[in-house]
From TrEMBL:
The keyword Signal does not apply. InterPro entries: Isochorismatase-like_dom (IPR000868), Isochorismatase-like_hydrls (IPR050272), Isochorismatase-like_sf (IPR036380). Gene3D superfamilies: Isochorismatase-like. The lineage of its organism: Bacteria, Pseudomonadati, Pseudomonadota, Alphaproteobacteria, Hyphomicrobiales. PANTHER family: ISOCHORISMATASE HYDROLASE, PEROXYUREIDOACRYLATE/UREIDOACRYLATE AMIDOHYDROLASE-RELATED. It comes from the Bacteria. This is Nicotinamidase-related amidase. Keywords: Hydrolase. SUPFAM superfamilies: Isochorismatase-like hydrolases.
Length: 191
């Protein structure tokens, strides 16, 4: 029997990204963390499972080293008592963690994925969720990314990267949704 409620997977909502912004990196979706807070509230209200993913850097220059300020979770996305916190060291929340084991043990088949960044850990986790057979939804207004320079020196805006990532994932690995629709469908579900 599958779990009737979806699980919320919150990927890497950590202070390192605030530090990147403060250092001049430009991002899209300035309201993404507010949408993540809305999702957390709705999932908590329904008693739906929540999995918090943290990235732990392994390179000496990483913004995500556990002893550094960037490792800490942003206040708006802090876990509540009893909510799972899973630490990963690569882009996918499924590699080197017990996330899949926990989901299978809970008979959870539907995932709602949000967090940062759209084209790195969120995308990798979403692709793997789809490949592993989970019914995944990616919340487009609850994830964000940063401007990047491509291999040929081309500048790509965060908005372009975000849109292309959503296009790549859409239908093949996940449904692309908005937070308000996730919350409305959660509220409409009966226990």
């Amino acid at each position: 029997m599958s779990h009737s409620l979806p699980a919320l997977v919150v990927v890497d909502v950590q202070r390192a990204f605030d530090e990147w912004e403060a250092a001049g990196k430009r991002r899209n979706n300035p309201d993404a963390v507010a949408r993540i807070a809305d999702l957390l509230k709705a999932f908590r209200t329904r008693g739906a499972p929540i999995f918090h993913i943290r990235h732990e850097g392994t390179k000496p220059t990483s913004s995500f080293l556990p002893q550094n300020s960037g490792y800490a979770v942003k206040d708006e996305a802090r876990e509540a008592p009893g909510e799972a916190v899973i630490v990963k060291r690569v882009n996918s929340a499924f590699i080197g963690t017990d996330l899949e084991t926990r989901l299978r043990a809970g008979n959870i088949t539907t995932l709602v994925i949000c967090g940062a960044t759209t084209n790195h850990c969120v995308e990798t986790t979403t692709r793997m969720a789809g490949n592993l057979g989970f019914d995944a939804s990616l919340v487009r207004d609850a994830t964000w990314t940063f401007d990047r320079i491509g291999p040929d020196g081309d500048k790509h805006s965060a908005e372009e990267i975000h849109a292309m990532t959503l296009s790549n994932l859409n239908g093949e690995f996940a449904r692309i949704v908005v937070a308000a629709d996730v919350i409305a469908s959660l509220e409409a579900m009966r226990q």
